[in-house]
């Protein structure tokens, strides 16, 4: 019947029916972890993570389990929940499933990582929980390699105040051939180098691409006490537009930086792009998104250190298995400050000439 209808429509000069059916046959939930999608959150809930509410359950395909974010019991706590796809998809909608009205997002925006970088593609106000899932249609279908919801109002869970509970975060679309550049500018494989201001110990394991938090894979910096300040600087091979720093630590959760700023070297000076207080490593990594900035380097300015309290040793240190900086290489990769600059290992404010390089990697 459908085939006969399609023939009639084609003879009438109407081909949209045939095209739409072909697209619908390929349309699927592209947010499933089993298909290579990853999920990140900027505020991880420690108790929830350790008690069966890992955010990975939001993309496991099982609507009977759920993940939890850390709102600090605040209805108006802003949370960024980001999905990264293994390839480019043309996305037209998202669907959110909760466990009830409690803890379900009430106000949020949807952004997609496109050829124009992060771009808002939908906005939702006064969202009311639906048992069958809340569908949000994007303003228009968009080619992207990532989707982010920025929640600005959380649902209330009785005496616990504002919370975030999602059983599934689904994204619907089809595969696309559009090429969208996005890479980890802080990877040694992409030409990055790393240094810190208080010594010459090799910490290259922090940018070697190995995120596993085994002791043998950690970059380790010794500190005198909790308040010892440290600058860790990653120089890029060229210029990038960076919007996210991601930190992986010790799988025992020891010695993760607690208070620090993330700074970008742009226009000949360091600019603070993100301030973090009271941070702790709960899951595999911590995600720190911020407004994108053109820069040639990123650094952590750590002002409060984490502690190891094991049978073998008690004391303060910095343990990181990987420091990533995600974004897009700037066209032509012309360095930003006086034909380019590079950090010094001795003085965090002393800079020398950095060579010009071209873009090396584009992908879809």
Walk me through this protein's architecture.
Strands 1, 2, 4, 5, 6, 7 and 10 form a seven-stranded antiparallel β-sheet that branches. This protein has about 375 residues and is mainly β. It contains three helices and 22 strands. The chain is about 5% helix and about 45% strand. The chain folds into two domains: about 25-175, Jelly Rolls, CATH 2.60.120.260; about 185-355, Galactose-binding domain-like (Jelly Rolls, Sandwich). The chain has helices spanning about 1-10, 15-25, 45-50; strands at about 30, 40, 65-70, 80-95, 105-115, 115-125, 135-155, 155, 160-165, 170-175, 185, 195, 220, 230-250, 260-265, 270-275, 285-305, 305-310, 315-320, 320-330, 340-345, 350-355.
Give the helix/strand layout:
Layout: H1 2-11, H2 16-26, E1 28-29, E2 38-41, H3 46-50, E3 67-69, E4 79-97, E5 107-114, E6 117-124, E7 134-153, E8 155-156, E9 162-166, E10 168-175, E11 183-184, E12 193-196, E13 219-222, E14 230-248, E15 259-266, E16 269-276, E17 285-304, E18 306-309, E19 314-320, E20 322-329, E21 341-343, E22 351-353
Antiparallel strand pairs: 1-10, 2-4, 3-9, 4-7, 4-10, 5-6, 5-7, 8-9, 11-20, 12-14, 13-19, 14-17, 14-20, 15-16, 15-17, 18-19, 21-22
The CATH level-2 architecture of the largest domain is identified as Sandwich
CATH topology of the largest domain: Jelly Rolls
Class computed from helices, strands and strand pairing:
mainly beta
Instruction: Let me know the CATH homologous superfamily of the largest domain.
Output: Galactose-binding domain-like
The oligomeric state of the chains shown is: single chain
* Overall average residue pLDDT: 85
H/E series: HHEEHEEEEEEEEEEEEEEEEEEEE
Strand content: over 45%
Number of helices: 3
CATH class call of the largest domain: Mainly Beta
First and last CA, distance: 38 Å
User: C-alpha Rg, in Å?
Assistant: 22 Å
Cα shape:
globular
Tally of DSSP β-strands? 22
Q: Tell me roughly what share of residues is in helical segments.
A: under 10%
Report the major sheet: 7 strands, antiparallel
């Amino acid at each position: 019947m459908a085939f006969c209808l399609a023939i009639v429509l084609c003879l009438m000069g109407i081909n949209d029916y045939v095209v739409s059916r072909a697209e619908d046959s390929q349309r699927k939930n592209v947010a499933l972890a089993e298909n290579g999608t990853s999920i990140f959150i900027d505020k991880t809930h420690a108790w929830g993570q350790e008690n069966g509410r890992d955010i990975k359950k939001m993309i496991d395909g099982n609507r009977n389990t759920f993940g939890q974010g850390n709102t600090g019991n605040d209805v108006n706590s802003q949370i960024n929940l980001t999905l990264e796809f293994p390839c480019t998809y043309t996305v037209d909608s998202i669907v959110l499933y909760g466990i009830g009205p409690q803890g379900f997002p009430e106000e949020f925006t949807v952004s997609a990582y496109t050829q124009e970088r992060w771009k808002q593609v939908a906005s939702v106000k006064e969202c009311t929980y639906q048992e069958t899932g809340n569908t949000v249609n994007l303003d228009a279908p968009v080619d992207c390699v990532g989707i982010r919801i920025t929640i600005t109002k959380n649902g209330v869970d009785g005496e616990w105040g504002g919370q975030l509970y999602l059983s599934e975060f689904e994204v619907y679309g089809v595969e696309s051939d559009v090429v969208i550049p996005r890479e980890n500018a802080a990877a040694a494989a992409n030409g990055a180098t790393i240094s810190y201001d208080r010594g010459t110990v090799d910490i290259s394991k922090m940018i070697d691409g190995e995120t596993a938090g085994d002791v043998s894979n950690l970059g380790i910096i010794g500190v005198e006490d909790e308040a010892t300040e440290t600058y860790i600087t990653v120089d890029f091979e060229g210029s990038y537009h960076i919007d996210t720093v991601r930190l992986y630590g010790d799988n025992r959760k020891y010695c993760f930086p607690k208070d620090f700023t993330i700074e970008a070297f742009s226009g000949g000076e360091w600019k603070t792009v993100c301030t973090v207080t009271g941070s702790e490593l709960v899951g595999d990594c911590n995600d720190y998104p911020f407004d994108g900035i053109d820069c040639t380097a990123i650094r952590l300015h750590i002002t409060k250190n984490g502690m190891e309290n094991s049978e073998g040793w008690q004391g303060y240190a910095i343990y990181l298995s990987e420091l990533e900086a995600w974004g897009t290489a700037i066209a032509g990769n012309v360095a930003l400050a006086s034909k380019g600059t590079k950090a010094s290992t001795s003085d965090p404010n002393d800079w020398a000439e950095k060579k010009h390089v071209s873009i090396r990697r584009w992908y879809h």
